[in-house]
Structures are given as C-alpha cells and as structure tokens.
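User: What would this chain look like folded?
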Amino acid sequence: MKKLIAIICFSIFAMGSANSGIIAGISGNIGMLDAKGTESVDGGNSTADKTEDLEIGFMSVFAEATLGDNVRVGLSYVPYALESETSENTRNDNCTHDGASGCTSTSNKVQVDVEDMASFYLSYYIDNFFFKAGVTSADVVTNESLATGSKYGDASLDGYFVGAGFDAELDSGLFVRSEIALTQYSDIQLDSTGSDNSNQINVTNLDGMTASVSVGKAF
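Assistant: Here's the prediction, encoded as structure tokens.
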C-alpha cells in the first residue's frame, strides 16, 4: 500500500504545485489503541488470548497541496521507528506429548518496531474547520528471542481513518492546527519459522483514537 500512496501523492502534489500553494509542517500526536492478540502454540494445541489498551505518542511531518478553495490533499510521515516495550514470559515449551516429563522452564522475549508509517488523506474545509479521511500504512518489524529458536516474520500494518479539526491562522502564513481522528487497522497474522513448533500470532480488533496538534506554514 505504501507504494500506491507514494504514486498517488506524487501525481497530486505535482498537479497541486502547478496550480496552487504547498503547505508543510510538523505534528505532535497522542492516542489510545485497543487490540486483541491471540497466540497459537504448536499448531493450535495451546492458545492464549490477551486484550490490551496501548498508549501511543509520536511526532510526524506533513505536506499538503491545495486543490481549489476547499480541498487539500496531504501526506504525513513518521521519520523514525515506533518501538514497543519488550514483553517477556516464562513457560514450559519443551514438554513431551505424553505428559509433563522433561519440561524445562524457558524464557521468551518479544519486541516490535513500527517503521515507515505514512498516511495519505483528503481534507475538506468550511472556513477554518475541516473534515478529513485517508489511508495509512506501516511496516511491523518483530524482534524476538524465543527458547524454541523460532522467528516471527514481519508484516504490513494497513488501515483507514476519519477525522475533523480546526486551523488557526497566525502571522506570515503560519498556522496552528488541532484535530482528532479515529483509525481502524486491518488484522495482522504472524507465522513462526525455524523450529519444529508451528506457532502463530493474530492481532485483531486494532483501532483507536488519536489527537494531534500541528504547526505549519503555507508557501
């Protein structure tokens, strides 16, 4: 999806720069995400579910092109990786199938980076108020240390969002913007490789709300 976002934005920004102004700035974002994670161990012989609220905070940069008096097309990008905390648990992964004999205590650590988060959106203005809708995409990079020696692959995080906000104009073309958005992400499935155990992680019901404050300038 990120390649498609880049192609669309290049085409629209080229058209916008030829006919109107460009707007650029920086945003501070905070929010809360809800997610449900299910881990299936050894081909489904054992499963574990966990539902969690995730607090997020990050900076992003954006650029917009005005198309007429009321419409803007924009692209925002997070120029660094969003790193999760390291999750660690201890369990018995090496038990024999005929009972508890041979079980040993093993430690497993998992940490996730979200990289190259990019969003493409359209905004419709009524005076200084606006409504917006768009799509977002990022790479999910897993970093794990599992006692079984297995590894989880990476995945793409895709979603769509809607939002609304307000621009307050300052001197010299500067403005301050506040907005709020609701985002719904697609499900993520990660399959393990590199060991005899066939494990799978599914992340579902991933959605949440984000509030942003931005400072920008029209050129």
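The radius of gyration is 22 Å. If you want, I can go into more detail on any region.
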